[in-house]
Amino acid sequence: MNGLTFLIPIALGMGALGLAAFFWAMRDSQFEDLDGAAQRILIDDPEDQQ
């Protein structure tokens, strides 16, 4: 039972850290153009073919 006194706060802290990272990514507009990055892979750049 003593192990739970350490594990529960650690788990809550890691969850809060993950939630903070998600909100940071949302604020930095990381999720704005999801289709653009997927289609950009398929386009050949003529500059890269030299």
Automatic annotation (TrEMBL):
Keywords noted in UniProt? Membrane, Transmembrane, Transmembrane helix
Question: Signal peptide span per the entry?
Answer: none
Tell me where on the tree of life, at the top rank, the source sits: Bacteria
Q: Where are the transmembrane segments?
A: 6-25
Spell out the protein name for this chain: Cbb3-type cytochrome oxidase assembly protein CcoS
